[in-house]
Amino acid sequence: MPEARPLRRAAFLDRDGTICEEMGYVNHVDRMRIFPFAAEAIRQLNEAHIPVIVVTNQSGVARDIFPESLVHQVHKKLISELAAGGAPRARSRCFLGCGRPLRGPRDGARGGGARNPGDDRIRAGGI
């Protein structure tokens, strides 16, 4: 049996309401507004060697309110603004279901972001 690697810590942060203002549907890239404290908080986690994965459930895609490509544009802007604010190592992950959005760990949402190259197991906390 192969030797198990120790668990690594990670923080899964919800995009809307935790990092960005809750705006309802972010159906245009200009609607995304990052909280002024978000980059600093993520920077502190990075300095503590805790990877940050930004997660979001965008039901607007499953409901055909906006395309998945818009979510990727918003995340590109989010990651860029976080980097400019001192948090260059945040990653983003969007969970989209087939016909319905994934809502949480029971639906497999947490597991998708936990796998990164070289990671075996991650001890995660979500906010």
How does this model look, in words?
With 127 residues, this protein is of the alpha/beta class. It has a single domain (8-126), classed as 3-Layer(aba) Sandwich (Rossmann fold). It has 4 helices and 4 strands; from the N terminus they run βαβααβαβ. It has helices spanning 38-47, 59-62, 68-84, 109-114, and strands at residues 8-14, 52-57, 91-95, 122-126. The chain has a 4-stranded parallel sheet with strand order 3-2-1-4. Helix 1 (38-47) links the parallel strand 1 and strand 2. It is globular and about 45 Å long. The N and C termini lie far apart (35 Å). Residues 96-122 have low confidence and may be disordered.
The CATH C-level class name = Alpha Beta
- The strand count comes to 4
CATH architecture: 3-Layer(aba) Sandwich
Regions with little confidence, pLDDT below 50 for 5+ residues: 96-122
What's the main sheet like?
4 strands, parallel
Q: Give the overall shape, derived from the CA principal axes.
A: globular
